[in-house]
Structures are given as structure tokens and as C-alpha cells.
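Researcher: We're teaching a course module on how sequence relates to structure. For the next exercise, students receive a sequence and then see the predicted structure as C-alpha cells, so they can try to spot secondary structure elements on their own. Here is the exercise chain.
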Amino acid sequence: IQMANNIHDNIFRPKNLIVNPAKLGGVCLGATWTENFEMEFLTGSSIRQSIVPLHTGGDYGWRGISALFVRCRNYKVSGLKVIESHMWSISNEFCENGEFYDLEFQNTLYVNADGINFRNGCKNMYAKGLRGVCTDNAVATTVLDATIPNGGGIVSGYSYQALGWTFEDFSGAENIIVEDCQIQAQYGQGL
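Model: And here is the predicted structure for the students to work with:
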């Protein structure tokens, strides 16, 4: 799957996310639960954001993430290759019981292009068989709070997290397991 040029948006995100029409890149209005699904990709399947990007890096917020999972529960993703993500390749927010297998990342062009992120509210998450190269972190568990400005970096009005920093009561991460990770993290951390 190849995104058209000059687009700044996710390739995959659940339908449950309620985007604020007044601030398309800002904090969303909320999200219901998306549950019990699998995304199994055939060998050789890949996703790539636009070759001519509108924006790159974290300063333009959550829409730069290739595959965004928000308030998802009991799900599995396997066999996916992410090529040149404009920001984080796969990010999970307020998700439970997610599994990721046999993922490959080819991120060498854009700053802050992580492999997979487990963010606020994630619990009981598992990843195995991660390969490739990322310009930043291979696997990140970033639990951010309200001390980080909602502006999300340099550009005002964008939020790194779709649901912001203060969504619901749980803002930690617990029981995150990663096995068999062979990713070169060019400027960030491996794990």
C-alpha cells in the first residue's frame, strides 16, 4: 500500500477515533473500543507513506504515524513491513492485549521514525520477531504526562498522542514484553 504524495495522515487507524473537526491534527474528542481483530499480511506486503511528504517528524503530531492503534483490545498484527515512515511506524495508545509478530522496518530517511511504540495506557502487549533499521528508537515505551505541552513539538496545534496526555485515569504502561528484536536504531535506542 503506497500513500499518495503530499498527504499527512495514517495509513491505518481504527474507525473508533473521534477526530476533532476544528483541529484535525490536535487532540481527538475521544475513542470507543475496537476489539477482537487480526491484521495478517502476506509475505512481501508493505506500507509506505507518501514519497513526497507534506510533513515529517514528530512536530506535526499523531497523523504522521503509519499505523496508529488507539483504544484497541485483543488484537494481533503480523507480517507487516513499514517503509520510510514519516514518524513512528506503529504506535499504540491506551491499548490492551495486543500482539505483534514478524514485523520489518525500513526507516532511513526521516527523523524520529521509530519502529513500534507502546504509549500511555498500554498493558499486556507482546512483540516478537522485529527486524530492520530505524532512524530513532527500535522499540519505545513512552509514558508521557501533562507536563509535556499539548502543542506537540515546535508546531502549535498538533498533538503527539491522539488522545492527548491526560485521557482517562490510567497513564502508565504495564506488562510490555519484546522478544527477538534485531533492529538497528541509527540515532535512538534499541529498546
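Model: If you want an answer key for the exercise: The chain is about 0% helix and 40% strand. Residues 70 and 93 are 5 Å apart (CA to CA).
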